Amino acid sequence: MAITIYNTLTQEKELFKPIETDSVRMYVCGPTVYNYIHIGNARPAIVFDTVRRYFEYKGYDVTYVLNFTDVDDKIINAANERNEQVPDVANRFIDAYLADIEALGVKQATYNPRVTETMDDIIHFISGLIDKGYAYEVDGDVYFKPRSFADYGKLSHQSIDELRSGARIQVGEKKENPLDFALWKQAKDGEIAWDSPWGQGRPGWHIECSAMAEKYLGETIDIHAGGQDLAFPHHENEIAQSEAMNDETFAHYWMHNGYINIDNEKMSKSLGNFVLTKDMIAQHDPQVIRFFMLSVHYRNPINFSDELLHSAKNSLDRIKNAYDNLEHRKQSSMNLEHSAEWFTLINDLNQTFEKAMDDDFNTANAIAVLFDLTKEANRYLEEKHTAHDVIEAFQTGITTILDVLGIQLEEENQLLDADIEALLNERSEARRNRDFTRADVIRDQLKAKDIILEDTPQGTRWKRADHDA
């Protein structure tokens, strides 16, 4: 069965047809790195990593791009508050982001482009839009004109007049129309800046993704993905920029994951229910967090609570126990004649799993298949005699689904003692340099690997967590 994807652009499920046979070009909007990420940021990282994994399971070669916005008003403000340089703040929180998502089982992207490393491409892109009449410069700022792009509003399914009614010109802006948005911002005194044909400044938010997607994936890509909150204005503006520049469809499929609620309330700083990913990882097994995130279809909102996480842990433990029981029984199993019905059952369940994932990556239904598979495995283990190859077929079925979901039965990337000592030395150096944020990142990274640190007057000691205690 072929894969279908719910396309935000058409608001329908569509048959996936790649630009090139057996390959997928996929762009996912990454974080603005001015602070640690919250669990709302972790959801798209997990969701679209799983989408990538399933494409690879189906035999596709996936080029996966996840960008970092490493210069922005928020980063500049954070640097000023800390009396630090913008690159130092950005680098620190890129490291923190990568540590968080690695702990959550997210594979390394093919490319992680940064705005500051793509500046020439961004400036060239903006110049092209000016030359084609879609953008204009005023006193060092450059703006895009949505009214010049006939299809503006097609992703958010709003008319340009509806959008115009809610738009305002902020104090200090010199744009011609309230809908116009910044491609280039003139630098303020003392701000980090780059030379451009319009004077010193830096890019607006939206233009960076258009330039980076084109640089690493081409003028037209298969899938553009991100959180639901990015559909408008960010992704809407990306479409306008890219299609105005290239006269080509920017992305064939637009995917957006739903929001996260905390104890049935929308997560927000004002409500005090704002949960950082690093804190969640410190309190819970990262694999349980990932398993929980995938227990709900990616387009639906998900409710986050300690009670639901505990339930997810119990469910994942049952699956792991079933696998361990199979492994234990395999030692005493024989190469005997067996009924073909067990292989038929396992094959049918595998096909049901693929049917679930082919249907817009329905991980909730895929997990239901996993439960069915472990239930049947436990039923098989009740037989007086078991066959070695049937048990292996059950194990392969379980690990296949878990691999696609990004869940490992064993800690494949457990840190070696030498790796731990190297990280401890790096942490000690960071503490000596009063880079306490970097020291905290390393501590959290080790904690995610079940390494417990104890700072003593004689130095830092470590031990592995005892889960049986």
Automatic annotation (TrEMBL):
UniProt GO MF annotations: cysteine-tRNA ligase activity
Motif ('KMSKS' region): 266-270
Entry cofactors: Zn(2+)
HAMAP family: Cys_tRNA_synth
Chain ranges passing through the membrane: none
Top EC class, one word: ligase
Protein family per UniProt: Belongs to the class-I aminoacyl-tRNA synthetase family.
Positions of ATP binding: 269
E.C. numbers: 6.1.1.16
Domain Cysteinyl-tRNA synthetase class Ia DALR, chain residue ranges per copy: 352-416
InterPro entries: Cys-tRNA-ligase (IPR015803), Cys-tRNA-synt_Ia_DALR (IPR015273), Cys-tRNA/MSH_ligase (IPR024909), CysS_C (IPR056411), Rossmann-like_a/b/a_fold (IPR014729), tRNA-synt_1_cat_dom (IPR032678), tRNAsynth_Ia_anticodon-bd (IPR009080)
Assembly with partners or alone: Monomer.
Cofactor remark from the record: Binds 1 zinc ion per subunit.
Alphabetically ordered keywords of this record: Aminoacyl-tRNA synthetase, ATP-binding, Coiled coil, Cytoplasm, Ligase, Metal-binding, Nucleotide-binding, Phosphoprotein, Protein biosynthesis, Zinc
Stated name of the protein: Cysteine--tRNA ligase
Coiled coil (UniProt feature): 309-336, 406-440
Location(s) in or outside the cell: Cytoplasm
Reaction catalysis annotation: tRNA(Cys) + L-cysteine + ATP = L-cysteinyl-tRNA(Cys) + AMP + diphosphate
